[in-house]
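Morning!

This is the sequence you dropped in the shared folder:
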Amino acid sequence: MQEMSDRREVSSGAARWPRRRVEVSAANPLAHLPRSEAVERREPASVGLREQALRAIRGRLVSGELGIGELRRETDVRPVASSRTPVREALAILAAEGLIDLIPQRGFVVREVTADEVSEILEMRTDFEARAVERLATGAGTVANISETERALEDMRNRAEAHDTMGFGVHEIDFHVGLASAAGFGYAAHTLTRWLTRIRIYRIARPLDDFQMPAIIEEHQTILGAVATRDTRQARVAVLRHMRATRERLDLARDPRVELELAGTPQVRR
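The structure's back. Tokens below.
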């Protein structure tokens, strides 16, 4: 067994950090790592269970089932007879993403998302997703990956017909993450998932109506159509227009950069 410790060496008279002793053993070989890094290095079997728990809890976040600011216990999100470890690791990841706050010995609360945060996320999404569809329109993606995105769009149609706004939102995340993954941006797709989850939490208090869901579906179909015809310019424009419409649906100010670019784009006749 190896024993490790952390201590900040400082000059005489200066404040010291509390000494932390960590035991690294065969049973706990990652104990010396920061919590978020240790979670990422688990064995494949436990990673699969963690990912299942993470997706399930994330789904409950975006559906509004876990209310903002409400104290929740681990048992509230852990299925009966399931292991505690994958759920705890999933909660640790969500806390590292800034989606929840962990309360020692008590549980966790879902953090509020502000309009400024959402506006910043949309600005970053615009650049990233425009680049992703441009890359796809050059033929960089695979048929299988694009098919996954098309299935997500079909799921959105089904949820819209059922007037299920929360289920619609879950599949909308799948659509956008699918585009990023299809373009070969697998690592960045994880970041996009975090961004989209924050937007969905913000939208809980601003639910979509039966007119907005068909409009979103049409915007997504326009993006896929431009990708299918290998029109990189129209694919980019479709994303910009989708982001503009998203801001309008969330009552956020328009992005001046998007407006400037769209101002020089000819309208497409239908």
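Headline: Residues 1-22, 24-34, 36-41 have pLDDT under 50 and may be disordered.

More detail when I'm at my desk.
O.
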